[in-house]
Amino acid sequence: MDTLTLLIVLMAVVTLLWIVASYAEIQKLKITVYGDGNKNDVLRTEAEAPTIFSGLGEAFINISHAIEVTFAGRIPKLEEDKIYYLCHPCTTGGKSVQENKAREEFLYQRIIDQNPGIRIIRPLQIIPEGMPHEEAMRRCFNMLDAAHAIILPMGWNRSNGCTQEHNRAEEKDIEKVYLKTN
Questions:
Q1: CA 137/CA 114 separation, integer angstroms
Q2: Which of 1, 6, 33, 59 is the most buried (most CB within 10 A)?
Q3: What is the average pLDDT across 140-162?
């Protein structure tokens, strides 16, 4: 068996294991939410009823985040004496708010794993959902102005808010750290 075939088979096995592990985590979560009793006894609307497809959809989202974290490039070394502002799309950039928050959490974990002791401002975790865009950006600019540097993940330029934050960093001469991963 040549190297390419072996690599493809290995990737397929790893992907299958991720699917199984993600599905098992979803099942554990369902038991936590519904209890050990009969899940059909729990009152819920028809729209909330889980299907095999909704479970698989959640599993594939979890797998995509795991693949990004596993195969993404290395985070650069950051200075411990600086405060960093973690820029990340919220409502634009092609993902839902929940997907963007999950991606931002994975990115944050990667950054602190490779840079322990780093101080990071995370506006996506601070700004309340549903706040008008202008008010949210005003708060983001206040936090950005307090930082020494802004961390810009891959794809930041597809987000209206991230583009505004980048432009603000340019105006205020705030250091920019461009990541090759998200």
A1: 29
A2: 59
A3: 92
